Structures are given as structure tokens and as C-alpha cells.
Amino acid sequence: MSFAWAALTVFTRRCSWLKVLLVGGGGREHAIAVAFARSSYSPKLYCLSELVNPGISRIVKNSGGEYYVGNPNDPEMVLKTALKTGVDFVFIGPEEPNFHGVPDSLEEKGVPCIGANRQVAEIELSKASMRDLQWKYRIPGRLWYKKFRTFEDAAPYVEEYAESVALKPARQVGGKGVKVIEDFQVYLKDEKRKVKKQHVESIYRDYMKDYGDMDFKILIEERVWGPEYTLQCFTDGRTIVPMPAVQDNKHAFDGDLGPETGGMGSICCGMNLKWGVNDERAILTEEEVEKSVEIVKMMVDAIQLETGRKYHGVVAGQMMLTSIWGPTIIEMYSRLGDPEALNVLAVLKTDIVEICEAIISERLNTVKVEFEDKATVVKAVSPHGYPLSRDLAKGHLVLVHDDEEGIFWASADLKNSGTIKSGGSRLVECLGVAETIPEASRIAERLTTKVSLADGWGLFHRSDIGSEKSLERRIMLANMAREIYKYRERKGILGKRMIWMPGKGLEEVG
What is the Cα 456 distance to its own chain's centre? Predict the structure, then answer.
């Protein structure tokens, strides 16, 4: 079945009984479900996930659909569910179904899918392949890197390399395992060399032990600094439609302290880039957003050229405004971010069904995708134990105090008895929408008090996300990076730098 024919089928059937299958059951998928519930086409929503998300379950029930519990990464199971329910298309939420070829299995049987097929999802699956692609096609924002198959291969290099580095699993492992080590103090070089080696071993032995789907296990990149942000885009393989840029907060505790998580919250100012601090100042300028969009488009073009496959779904650049390049790719996503999806879908004005149909029929350029100019702030509430000891965060009975709009269920499991148990990760994600980020932050903060655990087990969240002080710090960091990269741009040396190569000495890269 061709995409155009499938889209025509959707158009002719949607007025009476449009059906959609949502794959995944976290906070991101709850936000996607809410977007479908707002659709003027009133689709009947079905869902397949490992746990029963309380918020998605309610939407599914109200729409007349059905909730299925199963493995969302199993192509056969997802296909069986799609055929059984007779859905018009499938929307993939998380990344792992893309990596396991779920969209491929669906499309082979004529079921349209909003999700990156296995070959184009390589852009996220393999961080090493992403860097290879970036350098092969000379895409701006390139970072120097080295990739290794084993710890034994990487260990001598880490011991000799004296620069500040980012050490990463070479595969996407849910945002875990990344460690940035600054190596400026000469008197600590031996200690930091030891830490580097220990973490590289941890990447190989712990974070990559369950993944046999790629040769390279360890990635070492040059360390860069600047404010991070995520640019999410809809794409039909021909057109890229950007969403408002979102700034995520990965560290567990206030002040950007503690271990990295899947995301403790995020801020977004809409398309007008006003951040509510002295009104006109911004972490990103319009020019920087435009450059970021062009970089993401170049990455999509490159992976399609490399694989010969079309990209239908969502693509995102997790980026950083650096002093070397300006907009710089840190990683790529083949799906909406979590919690970043909440920020953009909350202000999406265009009907999500029309966007999906345009992606399927490759006519995204004909749809005007619009967003409200509102500020949004998300704050995730997590049980103690997350992210390092998730077993401790799992299985606690959840109490809900006033089930208010703005609370999105993430890692939670609705039992047949009607009780809700914590799933071990972020429990809920609280969304505030307002005219400015500090106002939205205060709304989200109030919502964090609406859940607790019956056994007294503690919950935590970051109260500083979207605060005036936090925004000032990020704007200051952006201005510092901007001043340097703009100077480099004027001098014609944007992206040029000297890197010390073990066994070779200083070499110019860029």
C-alpha cells in the first residue's frame, strides 16, 4: 500500500471512525494522547505499552478505544495489535520501537506509521554513526570524536589523551552513561585520568552490556560548553517543520547538580523567543534557531541519502550553543523528547491528525503548522532512588490529591483494582502554561504537590526549573558562547580549532 493511497483512505474514513494506535506509555505518550483527544476528528485511540498509564487509559476509554499491555518493541506484537484493531495509522512514542524495526514491520503490511524506520533511526541509535555521517557530509556543528569496540581498545587512548572530554556509550541507552570531565588542573591530571578510565570501563561493562546490536561500544568526544536545547521537527522526508526550541534540565537536583537523568524538566518560550527576563533577552536568537533547523534538515537529508529510505515522523537535534560553532549537535533523536514533547504539544494549534496525514502522504509542505506564543515549563516528580537505584523507586502506592489538568503520568502503572503504583522512573510530569517562563514555573510548582506515595516514601523534583535565577544563568552562558563564536565567525575561523592527538601532537580540525 502506498503512503498516498493510505492517506486517501484515512481522509475518506476519518469523519466517522478514525482509529489511531499509540505505542508507548510514558509522559511523552500521555501528551501525545492529549493532543489526539483535542483533535476535531475525535479519533478512537488505542494504546500498547508495558504498563497501563493512568492518563492515557482514561483518554482511550473516553474515545471508545482499548488499552493493550505488551512489549512495544516487538514488531510482531505491534503489528498484530494494529491489524486486530483496524487502525488507520500508528504513532510511535519512544525510540526503542524504532530501533527494533516496528515501523518497518507495519509499513510492510500496509499500515501507515508515524515513526522512523530502522535504517533512518540509526541517526539516534548509534551516536558513532551519527558522528560519521556528520563528518562525511561536512554538516556544521561537528565535534571531534573517537569510537572504540572494547574497553581494552579505548583504555590506552584515555590514559594518553590529556584534554577535557565527553565519555559516552556509543548507543542510545536512554540518556544514561554520559560523563563530561574537565581536565584543566595540572595537579589533578593523574586522578582525572583514573576517573576517565574507570568510567570508560563502566560504559563497556555496565551501560552497553545488554546491547549487541552494534560493533562500537564507546564514544569519546571533545568537551564543549554552552546552553543545551532541543529542536524537535515533524518531517515527511521532504519537508522539515520545526517546533519551538525547548531547553531540558538533565541533572537530578537544583543548580544543575547530581547525576544525569532522562530529564527532570524543561522550559520553552514558544516561537517568539521571549523568556520573561527583561522581556527581550533570550537564550537563543531567531538566527540561531534557523541555523539549527538547517542543521537538522541536513542530517535528515544525509541519512536518507545514505540509506535510500524516507524519514516519516519526528526528528530532533539535541543541541548546544557552543563557542566553537554556535549551534552544535550533541545527539540526534528519532522521536519526540520526554519531557520536551509536553512543552510543544501543549501549544500546538494545528490538528495533530492533519499533521500525521500530511506526513504519511508526504505533503507536509501544504499544512500550516502553528503554535501558540505561550511559555511552558515542565517539572518531573520522581521517587527517591531515581535515577541510580530504580528498584527502590518502584512499586509504591500513589495518592492523587486533586486530579488537575497539567499533570501527565509518566512511569506509573494503573492496576485492575484502580490503584496506581510507581514504575521506578519519573512518576508524573507537571506542566505550566503562561505568558512568561517564571509564571509557568510557578504553575508547574503548584502541581508538584498534587501527588504523594501512600507508604511515605519520598518524592523529589527540581524547584529551580524556569526560575528567574536559573534563566539568568542560562542567558549569561549563552551570551558568553555567542560572543566567542560570533568573533570566530567574523575572523573566518568558525569551527576551526587545534586538537591534541595521541601519538601525533596538535592537529587542526574543523
Answer: 31
Q: Are 161 and 144 in contact (CB under 8 A)?
A: no
pTM summary value: 0.92
Say which CATH number the domain at 109 has: 3.40.50.20
Whether residue 213 is found in the same domain as residue 240: no
> Is 509 within a domain?
no
Burial 425-459 (b: 16+ CB within 10 A, else e): bbbbbbbbbbebbbbbbebbbebbebbbbeeebeb
CA pair distance 79, 43, nearest whole angstrom: 19
Owning domain of residue 282: 228-468
Tens of pLDDT along the chain (510 residues) come to 444 444 445 454 544 589 999 999 999 999 999 999 999 999 999 999 999 999 999 999 999 999 999 999 999 999 999 999 999 999 999 999 999 999 999 999 999 999 999 999 999 999 999 999 999 999 999 998 888 888 888 887 777 665 678 888 888 887 677 777 765 544 455 666 777 777 777 877 878 887 877 788 888 888 899 999 999 999 999 999 999 999 999 999 999 999 889 899 999 986 655 554 444 567 899 999 999 999 999 999 999 999 999 999 999 999 999 999 999 999 999 999 999 999 999 999 999 999 999 999 999 999 999 999 999 999 999 999 999 999 999 999 999 887 778 999 999 999 999 999 999 999 999 999 999 999 999 999 999 999 999 999 999 999 999 999 999 999 999 999 999 999 999 999 999 987 766 666 667 777
